[in-house]
Amino acid sequence: MNVDQVKLEDHPDGAVPAAPLDPIGPTRVIELAARCSLTPKTARIFVASVAAPTFALAGLLTLQGFWPILAYAVAEMALLIWALRASLRAGRRRETITISEQSVTIRRYGVGPEYASVFPRHWTRVTLHAPLVALHPSRLTLESHGRACEVGQFLTEDERRNLAVRLKHLVGNVNESPAL
């Protein structure tokens, strides 16, 4: 079985064809989710608590003739709202890694279109790439047949290392498939 990357939205019911993704035998599932302590409700409360004093002060200064301050206050609030929306959207990112006797399946969803990458377990290699620059994060990839899929981009460095150890234990080395 070759590595397949399937765009889930191309299928009418949102599902991937059953043949390459159906696990045979025991499976292990690893769920990865981005950390986001901010909820939409708390984001609205935060914006309101920042906007109220900002617009009160800008209104007072506008009445005294300093009208450009109001334009800067509006621009500042628009930028704050944009940043919070981007943060909330990034917090919805999810990845599911399913390891069966035959395959390793990575599903990404939450932001943008949903994707699934399927690798034959027997030929899959788990690689933790060291960063090129000291302050940059490492990259954890699953590779097979000249293709690679990066997983856990939103994880901390320690979480990514622990995930690499766990995946190496479950997937094994190339030509080696340990029992699940």
Structure description:
The protein is α+β, with helices and mostly antiparallel strands. The protein folds into two domains: 4-35 and 91-171, PH-domain like, CATH 2.30.29; 42-87. Helices cover 37% and strands 26% of the residues. It has helices at residues 18-21, 40-63, 68-90, 157-171, and strands at 4-7, 27-33, 94-100, 103-109, 115-120, 125-129, 139-144, 147-151. Strand 7 and strand 8 form a beta hairpin. It is elongated, with a radius of gyration of 23 Å. The two termini are 20 Å apart.
Topology:
Blueprint: E1 4-7, H1 18-21, E2 27-33, H2 40-63, H3 68-90, E3 94-100, E4 103-109, E5 115-120, E6 125-129, E7 139-144, E8 147-151, H4 157-171
Antiparallel strand pairs: 1-5, 2-3, 3-4, 4-5, 6-7, 7-8
Got a strand count? 8
CATH class category of the largest domain: Mainly Beta
Supply the number of helical segments: 4
Q: Based on the structure given, which CATH architecture of the largest domain is correct? A: Roll
**Poorly predicted spans:** 1-23
Described by its quaternary structure, the protein is: single chain
Q: What percentage of residues falls in helices of 4 or more residues? A: 25-40%
Within the CATH hierarchy, at the fold level, what is the topology of the largest domain?
Answer: PH-domain like
Radius of gyration: 23 Å
Strand arrangement within the widest β-sheet reads 1-5-4-3-2
Tell me the series of helices and strands, N- to C-terminal: EHEHHEEEEEEH
| Count of the domains | 2
CA-CA gap between termini: 20 Å
Sheet with the most strands, sense and barrel status: 5 strands, antiparallel
Structural class: alpha+beta
Beta-strand content: 25-35%
* Average of the residue pLDDT scores: 83
So what's the overall shape? Answer: elongated
